[in-house]
Amino acid sequence: MSEIRVFEPKDYPAVKRLFIDGIMENVTPAFKEALLHPVNLAVLAGIAALTYALPGHLRWLGFVVATAWIAAVYWCCHMFYAIYVNDKLASEMKDIEKHFLSLPGNCYWVAEHKKLKVIGGMVAVKSCAGASKKEMGDEGPRQNNMFRMIVDRQYRRHGLGVRLTQTVLDFAQEHEYKTCILGTSKAQKAAQKLYLKVGFQLIKTYTPDIKRFISWKCIFSFHFNSFPFCCFFFFFE
Ligand SMILES: CC(C)(COP(=O)(O)OP(=O)(O)OC[C@H]1O[C@@H](n2cnc3c(N)ncnc32)[C@H](O)[C@@H]1OP(=O)(O)O)[C@@H](O)C(=O)NCCC(=O)NCCS
């Protein structure tokens, strides 16, 4: 059993490892999504057509080009997440106390195994105050953003993800946020099921311009009701 508590500086090495592992494990699912993307299928069909048009003794070139293309797709997926990890480790993850613990409305939690004292999961929340309406929708400062939801592989499917999510929602309600939003990629199926299970609603899917080829982003939202004892939620749309 794990205890969920606020991040402490001594947790940094474990949190950093969990962050790197949790983000980089998205490479393979993203690659699979990319392989089935219409653009990729069109390119592979084009290569196949060109290969067919080549004289027999040159057809091996088609296989080389197709393999190189698939390797390039994998490399793009890998680089997308590697750049993201490096970027975050050099910015907000470098100083978690400054970015999450010194600002009201922000927080960073870890799940620590009670006996083993191992960090098995984490999650963070940030206030959307200051973000543009275009980015965050109508709720503005009364909305917060949940992210860094990662559970170590060996502790998965024991309800830790639900408990971490509930920690964020309890915190958000205490701080009188009206909605909690989060973004995830199409490839993160387990995360999507988790959020739907807890009560988030999928409000839109879109393909950001630069990431068009490798991920469809999904936005989930959780509305708090304004009557604390009522058991229903108001959702977008
Ligand atoms: C998503 C993640 C945090 C879930 O953590 P977890 O502790 O395993 O989640 P829980 O045990 O609380 O599971 C809650 C529900 O999520 C869904 N779920 C979790 N893992 C799943 C999986 N591998 N496949 C399908 N559904 C899954 C199920 O509906 C589950 O409920 P159930 O066990 O009653 O069926 C974990 O898989 C993870 O860290 N993934 C990699 C990082 C990531 O993608 N983070 C999300 C960033 S947006």
Automatic annotation (TrEMBL):
Gene3D superfamilies: 3.40.630.30. It comes from the Eukaryota. The chain crosses the membrane at residues 34-54, 60-84, 214-236. Keywords: Membrane, Transferase, Transmembrane, Transmembrane helix. InterPro entries: Acyl_CoA_acyltransferase, GNAT_dom, NAT_camello-type. The lineage of its organism: Eukaryota, Metazoa, Chordata, Craniata, Vertebrata. GO terms for molecular function: N-acetyltransferase activity. Signal peptide: none annotated. Residues 63-221 form the N-acetyltransferase domain. Pfam families: Acetyltransf_1. This is Probable N-acetyltransferase CML1.
